[in-house]
Amino acid sequence: MPNIKSQKDRVVQAAAEQAHNKAIKTNLKTVVKKADAAIDANAADKDATVLAAVSVIDKARAKGVIKKNTASRKISRMAKRANKNA
User: Fold this and answer.
1) What CATH number is associated with residue 52?
2) Rounded to 5 degrees, what angle do the CA atoms 21, 14, 27 make?
3) How many domains, the chain?
4) DSSP letter (8 states) at residue 5
5) The dihedral of CA 4, 5, 8, 9: what is its sign?
6) Whole-angstrom Cα distance, residue 25 to residue 6?
7) What SS3 class is residue 73?
8) Assessment of whether the complete model's pTM goes beyond 0.90
9) Can you give the residue range of the structural domain that contains 56?
């Protein structure tokens, strides 16, 4: 545990940021799994589910939770799978 006040504050801030990022990543994984399941099942709401997943991926990228290329790769692969099963 740090002795300097500013470093004590940084420990608290880092913990809060870590919890925030974890929540975003958990939601991201959930939405991507739902989209993958909709693609596999060729569900009627497949397009809406994929669009929602792309939106969540873009928001995570904008907030800096995932890197730009990671977001692009996830979106590209999902779109490729969705269009293949169209």
Assistant:
1) 1.20.58.110
2) 10
3) 1
4) H
5) negative
6) 28
7) helix
8) no
9) 5-85
